[in-house]
Specification:
Length: about 425
Amino acid sequence: MFSHGVLRLSLRGVLLLALVAGCATSGDAPDMRGGANSGAIDVGNGPKGGNGNTDSGDGHDGGETCGNPEVHVIGVYEARGDHSGGSHPTGNAVVHVERTGPQVLVLSSYEPVNWKVTAVPNANIQYILALGYHAQSVEAPQGVQVKVLDYETQGVFAGCAYEYPDDDPHSGCETPQLLEEVKRLTGQEVSSFHGCYQGTSFTLHADLSADSSCPAGSGGGYNLSGYVSQVCSAGDGDGNGGGEACGNPEVHVLGVYEARGDHSGGSHPTGNAVVHVERTGPQVLVLSSYEPVNWKVSAVPGANIQYILALGYHAQRVEAPQGVEVKVLDYETRGSYAGCAYEYPDDDPHRGCETPQLLEEVKRLTGQEVSSFHGCYQATSFTLHGDLSAGSSCPAAPGGDYNLSGYVSQVCSASLIAR
């Protein structure tokens, strides 16, 4: 199950969106670099659809959140065909997103297009990026941020694309180049691409297939074509985990030393702990205990738990929601001990359960940064709320390790509504 130290169920390493100021460049020739500064774009100050909002963990967002989003690209050359010489009238195209979960939507056209985007509930479009040579505009769902990079109005030409594979590598709209530029601008691998030469409507389905108005004319550029990345193909976007899916998940860790206190000498009876997850979106749940625990996990609809990783010294067991894969790494039954942790910050770095070491090991095993940690010395229940706060049965005894403690990563905190 492991390859080069990373759990195979995990996704690519976390690539946090780099915030780079400014995207427009000057000059007479189109700038294919996407701006004077390299790296991912900053969507922090762009316009939003509707009145704007922030992420409360409920699947509605307006910018960066923890965990890395999927990236879906829709591309055309034009939305209307009456262009000639210096005349470039604006076409109209509608895009409907049925895919749920955190995602970035990228819209591309060489000719000017006004894009109107709609989406189902829980289609967590973190932002929309519109790319083109001529002017692009976007009517976005309420609260969704928009960033436009076109040469006509911004002096930036990131490229264009409308077919996959690219049958004509010298057409001026080169799919490989655009997808590479999207990867650079978003900081993410592209999850899916769909396009055709002329289109006025697209529907991105939950399984990442697509319908469109693309005519059935001759040539690949006129028919709808595209691809879904191999990683994405393993998941269907229905909120039910079962291994790897596209986009990088959040990673949430719950830790205890024990779930019952009657251990002595060679006696280590198994405790029971229940965990309820209210956080929605793609995530990995990591459960840690030194003493043996049987964990029973439940979750709200839309809590896309891709897998559960149980770590401990003594035997760990997990009763998981239907379809969620479980991996157990404990020393008693597997000969593997990743460590244990139950307090943050770690007040005693020499007691044997060291929080920094466990979190570093979780990062290595999952390939992701840890999004949140909550724990205490002894507990039998945890609830991970939608805003990443937590409730628990941890007693209010003196000492930091007996009380519930923890943290939420800075990236996650920036997108949460204060309680």
